[in-house]
Amino acid sequence: QVQLVESGGGLVQPGGSLRLSCAASGFALSNNVMNWYRQAPGKEREWVETTFTSTITNYADSVKGRFTISRDNAKNTVDLQMNSLTSEDTAKYYCNVILLGRDYWGQGTQVTVSS
To answer: Which positions ≥6 away from 11 have C-beta within 8 Å?
Structure first.
């Protein structure tokens, strides 16, 4: 059974950092493209980043230079390090994988950037 579980969200002040983690089960993360999305209240879900391999990653312009992805294939996890956070980063963050044409999502983890 495919499952994605995000963790690491919370309340952080502007300029602060958070590290989100997505734990995958039911498939080998190392063999698949993984995505992070986010959704702010009243807004559509927004793509954040895609990691193709441990070294090939694409980031949305809004997070480029501030967010960094890392994979731990042994633990079957993918982490999102988020630095220099602003209120614009406040959202629920989701990891995503597409397997055999089907979208799988985690339950999300809330990130709130506020003073």
So the answer is: 112, 113, 114
Show pLDDT as tens, one digit a residue, over the chain (115 residues). Answer: 999 999 999 999 999 999 999 999 999 988 899 999 999 999 999 999 999 876 788 999 999 999 999 989 899 999 999 999 999 999 999 999 999 999 999 999 999 999 9
**At residue 106, what are phi and psi to the nearest 5 degrees?**
-85, -175
